[in-house]
Amino acid sequence: MKKYDVIVVGAGHNGLANAAFLAKAGLDVLCVEKNDYIGGAAVSRELYKDWKYSNCSYVCSLLRPEIYRNLELHKHGLQVTPYGGSLQFMENGDYFGSYHDPEAAHREMARHSLHDADAYSRYSTDTMRQCRLIRDFLLRTAPDPTSFKPRDIKELILLGNKFLELGEDRLYETIRFWTMSVAEYLDEYFETDVIKTALSGSGIIGTALGIHSPGTAYVLLHHYMGDVDGNVGTWGFARGGMGAVSNSLAGAFQSYGGEIRSEAGVDQIIVKNNRTKGVALESGEEIYAPVVVSAMDVKRTFLNCMDKNDLPGNFYKRVKNFKIRGSSGKLNIALDGMPTFPALSENSEFIGKADMHFIDSMERMERAYDDWKDGTWSKDPYIDCTIPSATDPTMVPPGKHFMSCFVQYCPAQIEGRAWTNEEREAFGKSVIDQISNYSPDFKDLILHVEIRTPQDIEDQIGITEGNIFHGELTMDQLLFNRPVPGFAQYRAPVKGLYMCGSSTHPGGGVMAAPGANAAREILLDLKLKNTVPENFGDD
Amino acid sequence: MTNQYDAIVIGAGHNGMICSALLAKTGKKVLVLEANDQVGGAAITRKFADDFSVSACAHLLFQLQPDVIKDLGIEPDYSKKSMETIVLTEDGNHIRYQGKNISGVNEEDKKNYIEFHNRMIRFSDLLKTYLNKRPPRLGTKNTKDLMTLAKLGFDIRRMGKTEMREFLRLIGMNIYDELDERFVNPYLKGALSTDAVLGTHLGPRSPNTILTYLYRLAGLHGDVSSIQGGMGGLMNQIRSIAEGSGVEIKTNSKVNEISVSNGAVTGVQTEGGEKYLSSTVVSNADPKQTMMNLVGPKHLEIRFTHRIDNIRMRGNASKLHFALNALPKIPGFEDLDYQQRILIAPSEHYVEKAFNHAKYGESSVRPVLEITFPSTTDSSLAPEGKHVMSIVAQYAPYHLKGGWSNESKQQFSDAVKSVLKSHMVNIDQCIISEELLTPADIEQEFNITGGHWHHGEFTLDQFMFVRPVAGSSQYEMPINGLFLCGAGSHPGGGISGACGRNAAQVILQRD
């Protein structure tokens, strides 16, 4: 039986990135995947005849450009196209649009409020400054503040200096930014409800927090720090769907000699004498390697695939209490044609090109969260709606369209019990109804709808509660606290076992940074030459 | 010149008096000007109905800093020391806790409570050190600031790996998750949530509420007491201490202007037109009131005024006072139980739901209540056989949609009474008279902008280095000779005295 140097569990984008860097360093790497397709939550699948759906993650921006370049993903078919702005439909029949073109953006904002249009330039300068600060942390391992190891101390000093470079005033701004709620942060700049609403969405996407919860301003950052072709804060579609990201990573991995096995779900990570030996598949087959890397979230890794007795009690408890909360659901819709939106002019550049939202007040945003706290889905949800096929016609038959609706909030369970089919339908209906309020012909164009609750996502992809970040982005779960204080450097408390999923620093989104960072640590332990890029060259 | 002073303090709240006493002790000639006819600010005792008196705003003492007590030689005259907290349950098997003692919960919760309490005490002790000194500035080369920061880092490290990790994890977290992780009993979770959110615009699920909980414990470890003669009793004592040190206190002297010339203070002017001169003016008023009204934006830089404008200070806690002809019946209660601190907060969800309303400018339909019957231990407050019930009720937001009117006040006080009724069936028959102070009323009566306990929301973005605003956390305002000494400055509100003491130290060090 063949023995590998490394087994990576899970062929999501982080698992594949990790595997690719390790293979590039000359290791013999096997990546195992439970599903019959690769990509984890970065996939494109045909769920309706001739329609290709990015049915989980749907837009691309966070993927680290260092990784893109280092693994030469363009050679493996990855191409990201930026999309055109965003749109907020209003109950009074008006709308608020955000354009990429700063001139147009300013004009549109001024149409709603001259004050806010002026404030916006201040706002974008301030948030961009925070982005530039955090981007330097993404491809680095978080130092352990309790450690006296020279490496940790050196890294702490380095980070400390990064902060000090900001100067006193900006340092205070940073503290405030990292701890405030997105609503209060926006209040300091803007006066118009719909503008604040439009900007606040990025503060809550993927989290079980409301816009008024302290700490959500940081989440905002998490959605601003990416880029497309060097345009920081821009989002785009991967041509061919999000599966193209995973496929290109897989291509890179295979070009370095890596091997992928799908339909190979891991049942157990084998541990003997506090050392990992390999994995036992659900089929009963065992595969051996001295190094095992899990790209699964930490709960799934340690609670499902390991024996409790192999883990220190405290670690086990922390993992158990690690917060991975299902807060968002999805609707994937096949459309017979492009829906019309009476609020927009017929030739509006927004149609199909912008991400659309159908909620126009801060109060409605927060009330959507109250429903989640009550253990049910938002009756008036926040929907991030895109029509990727308008930008990328390769995914659907000519003239047809694919609509992706990211819906917040949607709990993993209804009042503590499993979803029923009726409830799933009702959840879907609340989304379709909200959109229909702004597009009368939308309902008639629907050919097929896939409704996904967090539970559905967990069942299919394996992410606990279907949380897009593999764990809440709250301060107690960031940086050196992620996933567990003392274990934030990708090493599990069992020798030879590593974590490389989004539960680790710097967190979720299709970023591939956790996978890359973990690879760097593994290579360090194996005393091999580092293949992972560390610094941001062109910022 | 008789109206020339070494320092003038605006406002005879506890912080103002404490600051003035510490300044006068070094031989300075200090004047305190108070707008109201009695000293104490929001910690006074006053009549609210014929023959009935009550601590009109703050009603329990749990934060007065040991350092302050020591420096001033305060000897509080307790009417009830170390009160138990009783969390009311429907069936009369109430939960009780005081310090690390707890009863009414199962063994598992008891064990976890002690562990939780001990850890929180340890963390609050660390916090305490830094509440009682000037916060360091960040990113400067000032040796003193660097030393304080280095010591803070060292102190956190010294707790040991495990505790340090826990500290760094918990400090920004919400209390809800921590309680959920540890406890089963909903009443206990409701009560501890309440301890964390009283006086703030936060719910148990809001990140940051571990910090507010630690703040409550820092100093006296959360030991709650009431004072003979109400809070005003303590204030009178502090007044005598201040006057004993040579402080001159003038009541009914509302300052309406801080005079500024060439970027430095020259004195103050009262509504009555009197002028007092000093090159040092210390304001116990909140930062907005001080900077925007008393100094005025014309003397300030734009960005600074912008920051002051943005301080969040909208109160949510209202105060209710009831004159009673008898104590209401509470199932499972014995006579002595009425002397304790009583909470109605049946679960963490209940508290969170009560908070939901506040987010939208509504008052809670089922409010969270902290109840005391001060007359059971202090006969000076009510006629023989009759009683006073004093309640802090949350949430009643300062910015109520449509504003506070008689109607909306009635609606909130009915909501409070309906919650009371579920535990005190005969409460309606007991009430002779009642008074409700909404945050808007508190603003009016006690001159606190927004009627907020802390003179500014107590959250990490308005804490320590950035309190009251970024760049001005060291009590000195950007006008020469002007200082803050109230709850809006570091560390924050509550009858703690830390702000006044820290400010005095800064002023003395400068001289």
Summarize the structure.
The complex is a heterodimer of chains A (539) and B (511). By secondary structure, chain A is of the alpha/beta class.
Strand order across the biggest sheet of chain B? 8-7-6-16-17-18-15-19
Unreliable residue stretches of chain B: none
**Sheet with the most strands, sense and barrel status of chain A:** 5 strands, parallel
Strand content of chain A: 15-25%
Strand and helix layout:
The complex is a heterodimer of chains A (539) and B (511).
Chain A: E1 6-9, H1 13-24, E2 29-32, E3 45-48, E4 51-53, H2 65-70, E5 80-82, E6 86-89, E7 95-98, H3 102-112, H4 114-138, H5 150-164, H6 168-179, H7 182-187, H8 193-200, H9 216-224, E8 227-228, E9 231-232, E10 236-238, H10 243-255, E11 259-261, E12 266-272, E13 275-281, E14 286-288, E15 291-294, H11 298-304, H12 313-321, E16 328-335, E17 355-357, H13 362-373, E18 382-386, E19 401-408, H14 421-436, H15 442-445, E20 446-452, H16 454-461, E21 497-499, H17 513-525
Parallel strand pairs in A: 1-2, 1-15, 2-11, 6-17, 15-21
Antiparallel strand pairs in A: 3-4, 5-10, 6-7, 8-9, 12-13, 13-14, 16-19, 16-20, 18-19
Helix pairs in contact in A: 1-10, 1-17, 3-4
Chain B: E1 7-10, H1 14-24, E2 30-33, E3 45-49, E4 52-55, H2 66-72, E5 78-83, E6 85-87, E7 95-98, E8 101-103, H3 107-131, H4 143-158, H5 161-170, H6 175-182, H7 186-197, H8 209-217, E9 224-227, H9 231-244, E10 248-250, E11 255-261, E12 264-270, E13 275-277, E14 281-283, H10 287-295, H11 302-309, E15 317-324, E16 341-344, H12 348-359, E17 368-372, E18 387-394, H13 406-421, H14 427-430, E19 431-437, H15 439-446, E20 482-484, H16 498-510
Parallel strand pairs in B: 1-2, 1-14, 2-10, 6-16, 14-20
Antiparallel strand pairs in B: 3-4, 5-9, 6-7, 7-8, 11-12, 12-13, 15-18, 15-19, 16-17, 17-18
